[in-house]
Amino acid sequence: MGSQLLSTVERREVLPESYIRPESDRPRLAEVTTDSNVPLIDLASPDKQRVIAEIGLACRTYGFFQVINHGIEGELLEKMMAVGLQFFRLPPEEKEKLHSDEPSKKIRLSTSFNVRKETVHNWRDYLRLHCHPLEEFLPEWPSNPESFKEIVSEYCREVRRLGLRLLGMISLSLGLEEDYIEKALGEQEQHMAVNYYPQCPEPELTYGLPKHTDPNALTVLLQDPNVAGLQVLKDGGRWIAVNPRPNAFVINLGDQLQALSNGAYKSVWHRAVVNAAQERMSVASFLCPCNSAVISPAPGLVRDGDAPVYRSYTYDEYYSKFWSRNLDQEHCLELFRCAQLQLQ
Ligand code: OGA
Ligand code: NI
User: Fold this and answer.
1) What is the 3-state secondary structure (H, E, C) of 35-85?
2) Which of 18, 56, 218, 219 is 20 to 30 A from 157 in CA distance terms?
3) pLDDT of residue 2
4) Fold designation for 17-341
C-alpha cells in the first residue's frame, strides 16, 4: 500500500483535509517580503579573493546565496527542467513502477516528505535519485522519457563539478585549505530530488515543503525560472522570498557545513510554498558526506579554550536520525550539540 501521488489525480478544487495545517502553522503569505540584498555571486568575476570574501559573508549572514556565470550552459538547465516536467506528466501506470515511500530506496518516486511519519501532508511529488557514482545508479533510473538518462546524467556531472568547486571556495572563506572540506567529507554521495508542486486550490493552508534545513553538506537548487516558491528564514523570524533568476542556482548550506564550521556558517531554514495559478518545479542536488565520514568542527575553527559546539558523529548516524523525524521539528543538529559545561 502506498500513498497517492498528486500528479496522478485530477486537479482538485478543494484542499483535502490531510494537507491542511493547523492555524498556528500556516505560511501567512501576505507577510513574506522580498529582500533585494540576497547575495548574488558572479563566479566569472576575475577578483577571486573578493568572490571568496563575498561567499564567506553570505554563508555567515544568510546561509545561502545565488550564483551566476557558473559555467553550466543555460540550455542544459532548460532541458533538465523540461525532462523533469515530462516525467511527472507520464501516465499513472508508468509512474507507479517507481512509486515507493521507503526512504532508504535509492531511486523512488514519492509524495509529500515522509508519508509514513508525518501527520499533515505536503503538496509535492518528488523523484529521488542517487547520482554518484553515475555508472552504478544509471541503469535503475527511469528510461521514460527517452532522453531522461542522457540529460539528467550530464546535468548531474556538471552540478557535481560546480558543487565541489564551491566547497573549495567555502573552505578558503573559512581560512582553511582549499581541499579541507572535500577531504573531511570523504567520497561524497550525490542525491537529487526533482520536485513537482502542482497547482494548489488553497495555498494559504499548506506547504510544498514545510520549514526545514537540509541534512547534507551543500545543496545546489535549480528553480523553475517562471514560478516563485522558495522562501528562507532570516534572523528575527522574517520569511523572505528567493525569487528565481534566469540561469542562476541557489546554493544553500546544509547541516554538515554548519557542524564543520563549528556553527560559524548557517544551515538555513527554508520552505517551498505553492500557488493557485501555476504548477512549479525545482531540482535540488545534494552533496552528502560519505556515510562513514566522521563529522566534527574543523580544529582550526575551535579557538583555544573554546569547546566545540557539536560532538563528532558519523554521517550515517546523522542521516538515520534525520529520516526518523518529522521534517519541521527542531534543527536536527541540535540533537548533536555538546552539553553545556556546568557552571561551578
Ligand atoms: C529541498 C528544497 C526547495 C524548493 O528539496 O530540500 O528545499 O524550492 N526545495 O523546491
Ligand atoms: Ni531543502
Assistant:
1) CCCCCEEECCCCCHHHHHHHHHHHHHHCCEEEEECCCCCHHHHHHHHHHHH
2) 56
3) 64
4) Jelly Rolls (2.60.120)
The predicted structure's pLDDT at residue 328:
64
Q: Which of 154, 168, 176, 292 is nearest to 218 (CA)?
A: 168
pLDDT digits (tens, 9 = 90+) for 141-200: 999 999 999 999 999 999 999 999 999 999 999 999 999 999 999 999 999 999 999 999
Low-confidence ranges of the chain (pLDDT < 50): 1, 341-344
Other Cβ atoms closer than 10 A to 230: 24
Domain boundaries, the chain: 17-341
CA of 271 to the centre of ligand 1 (A): 7
- Report pTM: 0.95
DSSP H helices in the chain: 48-61, 74-88, 92-96, 134-137, 148-173, 180-185, 255-260, 315-323
Cα 263 to its chain centre, rounded Å, is 19
